[in-house]
């Protein structure tokens, strides 16, 4: 039986998969079982921040695996405390505390619980339970995650959903203001919407959200699962967006996963000192949260991102990509948007053959040309290269992309 046949017969069919089976990776490259090489600008959807098989990560995991893989959170875990200190002091640079889990959806579930519990502790009631999120958002596939997500397609067939979520148009500051009521516990949004189509939040939207937090005592929560930990050229996506805006919108809660383990599964959320006390003993937990192995892997990734200085090259790489696309004259591509190495090429769907008018059509052609990309939203092809991608690899990706667009014309 081939891998394709085994997947078909034994694995739950919840994913639409491309007919490729991956076998090994190195740096920004990945090879399939047939030996075909690809430049990997998918990186497990923004996960492999250091590329594949980075020796620092491989060595850290190997050494820790021989020392202690797992122990319960009934005990102190030195690697977990070390990682939490790194996140608080180096990444957030704001006082607070960190909880560890295994995925982005779990991190967001924890954020939602934090918001409800914070207000419960203030009032002794659960009257403030509503979370405002945005249309086109994506917050994960758990029952909490799909309720929070502002896209109908993830919810169909799963009623009754967890109640208490209100969705407003993304970047509509007025709609945000109007949505706040005495039931509102928190505002949750992605500083850069990823799955929805690579749309950064505006500084005005951040500012309004921060004002509403101050006026109403609600919590301001950022989902940095996709845009966090270096992808934008800063540890924090929201900081990159706000850097030159004059707007200050420091959050109460931030959630992460994806790139923080460089491919090792780990998620987390940070809460400011304002609401840390809400999540005391017995309120929340995860058997696998912050194990010695997961914490070691994440620490190795974050320290390597820091010591290699790879975040510093990201603004130049972003500018290089945007400048090259600005010079393009391909009818298929309307332009490129995004922040840092979270980039979305907007496809003019009506230029594609009938019956093929989705970004997946281009993603398949690019894959055949040896470049892995990811579809997003209705009309976006995403580039999510490793953070340590080289300029030469970006040039190579452009050569492949342009050869596909030349063929189409
Ligand atoms: C912004 C955002 N939040 C949450 C999630 C869910 O993360 P996970 O798949 O690790 O549960 C994703 C995944 O794509 C995401 O992009």
Known CATH architecture of the largest domain:
3-Layer(aba) Sandwich
The CATH homologous superfamily of the largest domain: Type I PLP-dependent aspartate aminotransferase-like (Major domain)
Derived from helix and strand composition plus strand pairing, the structural class reads: alpha/beta
Q: Quickly count the domains.
A: 2
- Which class of the largest domain in CATH terms? Alpha Beta
Residue fraction in strands = 15-25%
Mean pLDDT: 98
Would you kindly provide a written description of the structure presented here, covering whatever features stand out?
It is a single chain. The protein is an alpha/beta fold. It has 2 domains: 3-54 and 310-408, Aspartate Aminotransferase, domain 1; 56-308, Aspartate Aminotransferase, domain 2, CATH 3.40.640.10. 38% of the residues lie in helices and 18% in strands. The chain contains 14 helices and 17 strands. The strands form 4 sheets. Strands 4-12-11-10-7-5-6 form a 7-stranded mixed sheet, sandwiched between helices. A 4-stranded mixed sheet has the order 1-2-3-15. A hairpin with a 4-residue loop joins strand 2 and strand 3. The mean pLDDT is 98. Bound molecules: pyridoxal-5'-phosphate. Pyridoxal-5'-phosphate binds at residues 45, 103-105, 108, 138-140, 190, 194-195, 223, 225-226, 257.
């Amino acid at each position: 039986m081939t891998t394709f046949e085994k997947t078909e017969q034994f694995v739950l069919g919840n994913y639409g998969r491309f007919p490729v089976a991956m076998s090994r990776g190195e740096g920004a490259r990945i090879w399939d079982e047939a030996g075909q090489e690809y430049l990997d600008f998918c990186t497990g959807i923004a996960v492999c921040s250091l590329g594949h098989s980075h020796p620092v990560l491989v060595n850290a995991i190997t050494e820790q695996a021989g020392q202690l893989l797992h122990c319960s959170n009934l005990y102190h875990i030195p690697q977990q405390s070390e990682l939490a200190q790194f996140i608080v002091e180096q990444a957030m640079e704001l006082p607070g505390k960190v909880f560890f889990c295994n995925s982005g959806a779990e991190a967001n579930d924890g954020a939602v619980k934090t918001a409800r519990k914070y207000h419960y502790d203030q009032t002794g009631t659960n009257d403030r339970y509503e979370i405002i999120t945005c249309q086109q958002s994506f917050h994960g596939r758990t029952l909490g995650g799909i309720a929070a997500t502002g896209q109908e397609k993830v919810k169909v067939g799963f009623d009754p959903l967890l109640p208490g979520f209100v969705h407003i148009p993304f970047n509509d500051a007025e709609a945000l203001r109007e949505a706040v009521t005495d039931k509102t516990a928190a505002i949750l949004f992605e500083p850069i919407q990823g799955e929805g189509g690579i749309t950064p939040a505006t500084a005005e939207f951040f500012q309004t959200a921060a004002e509403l937090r101050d006026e109403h005592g609600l919590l301001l929560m950022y989902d940095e699962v996709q845009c966090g930990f270096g992808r934008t050229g800063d540890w924090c996506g929201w900081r990159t967006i706000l850097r030159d805006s004059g707007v200050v919108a420091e959050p109460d809660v931030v959630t992460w996963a994806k790139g923080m383990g460089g491919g090792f599964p780990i998620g987390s959320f940070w809460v400011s000192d304002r609401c840390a006390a809400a999540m005391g003993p017995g309120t929340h937990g995860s058997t696998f949260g912050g194990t010695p192995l997961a914490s070691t892997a994440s620490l190795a990734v974050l320290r390597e991102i820091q010591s290699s200085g790879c975040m510093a090259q990201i603004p130049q790489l972003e500018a290089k990509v945007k400048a090259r696309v600005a010079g393009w004259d391909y009818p298929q591509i309307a332009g490129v948007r995004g922040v840092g190495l979270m980039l979305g090429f907007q496809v003019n769907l009506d230029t594609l053959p009938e019956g093929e008018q989705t970004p997946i059509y281009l993603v398949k052609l690019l894959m055949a040309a040896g470049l892995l990309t990811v579809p997003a939203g209705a009309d976006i092809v995403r580039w999510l290269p490793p953070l340590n991608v080289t300029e030469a690899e970006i040039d190579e990706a452009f050569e492949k992309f342009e050869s596909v667009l030349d063929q189409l014309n």
